[in-house]
Design brief:
Strand order of the largest sheet of chain A: 4-3-2-1-5-6
Distance between the termini of chain A: 53 Å
Number of helices of chain A: 10
CATH superfamily of the largest domain in chain A: Creatinase/methionine aminopeptidase superfamily
Number of strands of chain A: 20
Oligomer: homodimer
Structural class of chain A: alpha+beta
CATH class of the largest domain in chain A: Alpha Beta
Helix content of chain A: 25-40%
Chain lengths: ~350, ~350
């Protein structure tokens, strides 16, 4: 069953006439539109509960709309987007008493437009249902993410092989992103290269500064066929002390154990708890969640935080990324894993023994 | 007068207790927060009408918050973001009867949070006032954009110099972005490299395909110190026909004339009209607006479309980018210009005679 069909069942169950996703911002992305149609850009997607879905796109979106394989209408010149959406909803004999939306994807301006064009409609938030739909990946999605991870592995391998020539953090980032773009891939999020003191920041913004000695966190993900990957490796520039090696190896052991301990029907929060136990006295230095689902968006379900109520299920793809952060350094190791029928498959396969570049 | 002070005058005039901008999405940007504070990431900015503004940031935003130079409060663990905002608004003795927001920056989820934490507040949309504030650039902003354009010029020059070695569209894009990232700059928007037939698309998505003979549109912009640049050059791969050269030269003449005809206090729509006249029988092939303001966001005021009501004013920085699109090719030439006291300054200075790479 396709994800659209699956979602239409939700619409029927909740007696929602149609779901609408739209984007009015040239540099914005509506992830629901992207997920169901593969279309990125200004426009709207209408998913009726019991008819075929369609896109509304401006003239300069025609080529992309054609690639989506979904029926589309082209916004005529001088016609307003939301008026034209309403016209086509009506032409397709779709009721609009109850309209589904994603509260996170609709800003107050879009809401005004919707309210103006669908005067008597009730807007119903389907955020949770959408995230649940996106949480479990289809075979096709898994194939894409697996291939994305393979490409990302190759890029990281090449980067580490040539690492000696890099002098600055921005250079490493530029290299990784160049190799991604050259292969026709996008980026899942801004690449993090955090050396020296900066490795103690969880979300360091890479700048044009010298690579400093010590641990260097590299957090990198590509966007392949609209799906994200997300890998972190921490390498060492210079000569690590014994203490540093012990710290790295402890984190690595904990990360490997966490992967082993993913059990179908197990609680995500429990895994987070186990990791804290494994880190023992360093558990207070682990200051972020253990992981998150990945998909068309970099943060999806499940949530692997201590407060998570999610359960491990077949078809989920998520990160496992414990980290420890001190005053002057940090270490994080992150892989993408898939829960399959009988086991847990690690999709990012690049080695994770401490790489020392001296 | 700083832009914050200028905006606080608007707040006073409209009797708004404070303006709030917030971002709850790891990969999202709130442009108002970025504009007033330089802070990018999850968090919130509060601008009271008659007190100093402050940021609320999670623990992993501390380093960036410190760089902003603005007072900030760190969200304690286990505390909810919007509750903590409300607490600090109250601690700072700021009223919240009338709260200013930007309707485009607030999604329905954030609105729910705001409504929950500021129960009796009225939300007032300041979108237009914010865009008006951002429209006229300060001397500091102009200095940054001028430097951004200089850097972008250098990157494009390097790209054209080495163009012969590129075989694929994605390679050109990867090169431009690599050179940007290496210099510590970000991207203003996804780079467009559109060769052959693809040049007939206004917003082509660059893919990993061979560079085709014919016109090749390169639309590229960096983000330097949070400010965007935006340049388009159309080059020719192979040997152009006489007709093609004539078409290019006509567009170039029209573009140069448009720049010359920017007059302080003149109507933006009028300039668009003039360009249509200059293109004569090809005016129907000019299918997008003549230009747009640039700033922290790639599309700002003024609007240079035929329906625009904007007026040219000192301190505006915008693009002038006429284009013509046919069935199998397109040409666009775009510069960034500044309206200064006595004239119009072109900030992007890279040459625009037809570059032929054969």
């Amino acid at each position: 069953m396709s994800k659209i069909t699956e979602f239409q069942k939700v619409l029927k169950k909740k007696k929602i006439d149609f779901f609408i996703a739209c984007n009015i911002d040239y540099v914005g992305i509506d992830y629901d539109m992207l997920y169901f149609s593969g279309f990125e850009g200004i426009g709207a997607l209408v998913v009726p509960k019991n008819k075929k879905c369609f896109l509304i796109v401006p003239r300069d979106g025609i080529v992309k709309a054609r690639k989506s394989g979904i029926k589309f209408y082209v916004l005529p010149k001088k016609k307003k987007l939301f008026e034209f959406i309403a016209e086509n909803v009506s032409k397709n004999k779709i009721k609009h008493k109850r309209m589904g939306i994603n509260k996170e994807g609709v800003n107050l301006l879009v809401k005004d437009y919707l309210k103006k064009c669908f005067k008597k409609s009730k807007l119903i938030d389907l955020r949770k249902e959408l995230y649940k739909t996106r949480e479990i990946k289809t075979k096709t999605e898994i194939k894409i993410i697996r291939e994305g991870c393979r490409i990302s592995d190759n890029i990281l391998k090449k980067c580490f092989k040539e690492f000696k020539r890099f002098k600055r953090e921005a250079e490493v980032m530029a290299f990784l992103e160049y190799e991604s773009k050259k292969r026709g891939c996008g980026l899942a999020f801004p690449t993090i290269v955090a050396s020296g003191n900066s490795s103690s920041e969880v979300h360091h913004t890479t700048e044009d500064v010298k690579l400093k000695k010590g641990f260097c966190i590299i957090d990198f993900g590509i966007r392949y066929k609209n799906y994200c990957t997300d890998t972190t490796r921490t390498i060492y520039l210079g000569k690590p002390t014994k203490k540093e090696i012990i710290m790295y190896d402890l984190l690595l052991k904990v990360q490997k154990n966490a992967i082993k301990n993913v059990k179908k029907n197990g609680k995500c929060s429990k895994l987070n708890e186990n990791v804290k136990k494994g880190l023992d006295k360093y558990s207070k230095n682990f200051i972020h969640g253990l992981g998150h689902g990945i998909g068309v968006k970099i943060h999806e379900l499940p949530n692997l935080t201590e407060r998570s109520k999610d359960i491990f299920q077949e078809g989920q793809v998520f990160t496992i990324e414990p980290g420890v952060y001190f005053n002057n350094f940090g270490i994080r190791i992150e892989d993408d894993v898939l829960v399959s029928k009988n086991n847990v498959e690690v999709l990012t396969k690049i080695g994770k023994s401490l790489l020392i570049i001296d």
